[in-house]
Amino acid sequence: MTAFTVWKFDGPDGAGHAESVLKGCERDGLVKILDHAIISWPKDDSHPTTKQGHEDTWRGTGWGALWGVLLGALFFVPLIGGVAGAAIGAISKSTQDAGITKEQLQKIRTEVTPGTSALFVVTEQGDLDRVGERFHGMHSKLIDTNLTDAERQVLLETFGGR
After folding, report:
1. Which of 62, 86, 91, 130 is most buried (most C-beta within 10 Å)?
2. Who has greater pLDDT, 149 or 119?
3. What interhelical angle do 128-135 and 14-27 show, nearest 10?
4. pLDDT at 158 over 60
5. Burial (0-12, 13-18, 19+ Cβ within 10 Å), 82
6. For residue range 19-32, what is the model confidence (pLDDT) as tens digits?
């Protein structure tokens, strides 16, 4: 099953560190990464920086094309009241087929703030117990996922997310 998850980290470098851990898990055959993106937002910057993974498979999955639209509308459109709401409403139409709702987009936008970072990742075929061991103690929070409630609970228990 394909899973879209967004993890928030307490510092601007946390998601970058998590990316290297996740790639190590993939090299060891513990998870298959379809695509990923990182948002890093230093405390004194007016907007975050983004890095897209561009895994070899992204062209076939369609996730890679989504990152630019998703991250651009969430973090680079002027975030003034109705403008931000309109931007999120517009991109929610393109993300709903991927199982990402307008409410999830709004939650992501409010959670990722200056001084934090986030790892957006699309995976499949993961051994969550073994991957979770490597993520233990990384001070992360699961912001959102398209997993069922039961799958989400397993993910939270495995990774120790808040």
Report:
1. 91
2. 119
3. 140
4. no
5. exposed
6. 999 999 999 999 88
